[in-house]
Design brief:
The complex is a heterodimer of chains A (180) and B (128). Chain A is mostly beta strands and 180 residues long. In chain A, 14% of the residues lie in helices and 38% in strands. Chain A is elongated and about 90 Å long. Chain B has 128 residues and is mainly beta. Chain B has one domain.
Chain lengths: 180, 128
């Protein structure tokens, strides 16, 4: 047996208890029970928006055949044929005060106010679970055109803009009342 | 499989159909004191009509002008759908009651009119 320094003389030395204690700090951070909400993140006129996941039943290709119905406002593109059922297809830009978009984008089947309709979006960004603590109350500075339809704001760590979480009930009720 | 016998015609770039039982006759000229055109009635837009469908409302016979020929078709009941709620809320006229779309590609998209809800609300300014 050779001579070696005593353990307590090693400046880097630790006891089992100290090492295990440090490891416990690493694993105690995640709260897996924190309530979360599924959201569908998408773009409209270059701006990020979200809808609650429970309100979006299906995501369809943007090139789905659309049948034009004359005499309707610009926010109504017409109807689509979805597995034997006729569904309306609307755009939200007029209601939200946003400029019209170009391109096919994608279609979301959205439920709200007891009814269902397809909604054209420019781009689908993600479908994910977000902790409820990440949603903030919409500020007073939110534009008056958006405020009635936004239930919360989500600010991600890396996003430059806060993402408004849209209220599908408010959107469809307003549309039925002739807005947009 | 059931079907609905309809008078079908084209107007404003779309194909329209109305139950044949609501159409009493089809003329090439105005013969009734009350008349209007489909475009005027639904979209408040002037148009030239070459065919006139005689319909009846509570005040008696009146004529609805359409821009071209019409035909009798038999729409299969399975192809007939109600208007989706959001679309019904913004429909240009309460007579627009549904759409017809069959799975078969030869069956074009057709807008359905309820002839009982059509009526010239005021004296027409249209001069045939």
């Amino acid at each position: 047996m050779t001579d070696s320094p005593r353990p307590d003389s090693d400046p880097q030395g630790m006891t089992f208890e100290q090492a295990l204690s440090e490891r416990s700090h690493d694993t105690a951070i995640v709260d897996v029970d924190e309530p979360s909400q599924q959201v569908v993140l998408f773009q409209l006129s270059g701006q990020p928006f979200a809808l609650p996941g429970h309100a979006v039943s299906e995501i369809l290709k943007g090139d789905t055949s659309v049948y034009f119905v004359p005499g309707l406002p610009n926010s109504t593109e017409g109807v689509i044929h979805l597995r034997g059922t006729i569904e309306s297809l609307i755009t939200l830009q007029p209601l939200l005060g946003l400029p019209a978009s170009q391109g096919e984008g994608m279609l979301l089947m959205v439920k709200g106010a007891g009814i269902r309709s397809a909604v054209r979006i420019d781009q689908l960004d993600d479908v994910c679970e977000l902790p409820m603590s990440a949603f903030k109350t919409p500020p007073e500075t939110l534009t008056s055109t958006l405020r009635p339809y936004v239930s919360a704001l989500w600010q991600s760590d890396d996003a430059r803009h806060a993402t408004p979480l849209l209220d599908p009930d408010a959107l469809f009720q307003a549309y039925q009342q002739g807005l947009g | 499989m059931g079907h609905v016998t309809c008078v079908c015609f084209f107007a404003s770039g779309s194909r329209w159909a109305m139950e044949a039982r609501h159409v009493r006759r089809i003329d090439s000229a105005v013969t009734q004191p009350r008349y209007t055109t489909l475009e005027q009635l639904l979209f408040s837009q002037p148009s030239h009509s070459s065919r006139w469908l005689t319909l009846h409302d509570a005040q008696g016979a009146w004529q609805l002008g359409i821009t071209g020929d019409s035909e009798i078709i038999h729409l299969p009941s399975t192809a007939i759908h109600p208007l989706p709620p959001l679309l019904a809320a913004r429909a240009p006229h309460p007579a627009l009651c549904g759409v017809a779309l069959d799975e078969q590609p030869e069956q074009p998209f057709t807008l359905l009119l309820n002839g009982e809800r059509l009526s010239p609300l005021q004296a027409s300014t249209y001069q045939p």
